[in-house]
Amino acid sequence: MCIVGPSGCGKTTLLRLLAGLISPDQGEVRLNGQLLREPCSDIGLVFQKANLMPWRSVFDNILLPLQVQNTPKVQANERVEQALTMVGLSDFAAAYPRELSGGMQQRVALARALVHEPRILLLDEPFGALDALARERLNLELLQLWRASRKTVVMVTHNIQEAVFLADRVLVLSQRPGQVTAAIPINLPRPRELSLVYDNNFSALAYQVRQAIQ
Question: Helix or strand or coil: residue 142?
Fold first, then answer.
């Protein structure tokens, strides 16, 4: 599912609520029927910036959540290697963030969010700072990861085409105070390729989302 809406309408705030990083003023957030009061290992979160530790290698950046959880070393190392393979960075395990492109840094951040095997993945416009070609490549990689894991994914984006290309459903938020004004099903076939953006059905759905935002 993707969440779109005008700037400042509360998209990132909603994602932080879902992640347990902040508490709602009213109502409650539940995960599998349990009240969510703080971050938990069932939820992985990727921010707009990769937020990698510059003094740690790619391997050690991905390892960090498992170290916090006191995961046994052998098991932790195996999971990191699996995560590196998933995002196609096995050859860069010993590299440092300064040696990576922006797209590669975001792939490290994605691997770090996946390494503890969360059931839900939250993405806060992770590809927004990338050029168009890098963004397209990472969209395809994200779809491949989703096909392999079938995790629940909730993504905030300002890019309408990206939302329609990735999602099964697009939620549209209004201007502040942000409210859900539309929930648009995206009934496009999977697997999806970049050529889909030239399809008439894709264009019609993108137009529908744009009209809902306005």
Answer: helix
In the chain, where does DSSP find H-type helix? 11-19, 58-68, 73-86, 102-114, 132-149, 160-166, 200-213
**Averaged pLDDT for residues 99-123:** 92
- Amino acid (1-letter code) at residue 98: R
> pLDDT grade, residue 198 (50/70/90)?
very high
Chain-wide mean pLDDT for the chain?
92
Rg (CA), the chain: 18
Domain ranges of the chain: 1-42+119-214, 51-117
Q: Is pLDDT at 129 greater than 80 in this prediction?
A: no
User: On the CB side of 203, how many CA atoms lie within 13 Å of its CA?
Assistant: 4
The helices-and-strands tally (H runs, E runs) of the chain is 7, 8
Q: How many CA atoms lie within 13 A of 184 on its CB side?
A: 29
What is the rounded distance in angstroms from the CA atom of residue 13 to the CA atom of residue 210? 21
- Domain 1-42+119-214 coded CATH 3.40.50.300: yes
Q: Where are any strands of DSSP class E within the chain? A: 2-4, 30-31, 34-35, 43-46, 120-124, 152-156, 169-173, 180-185
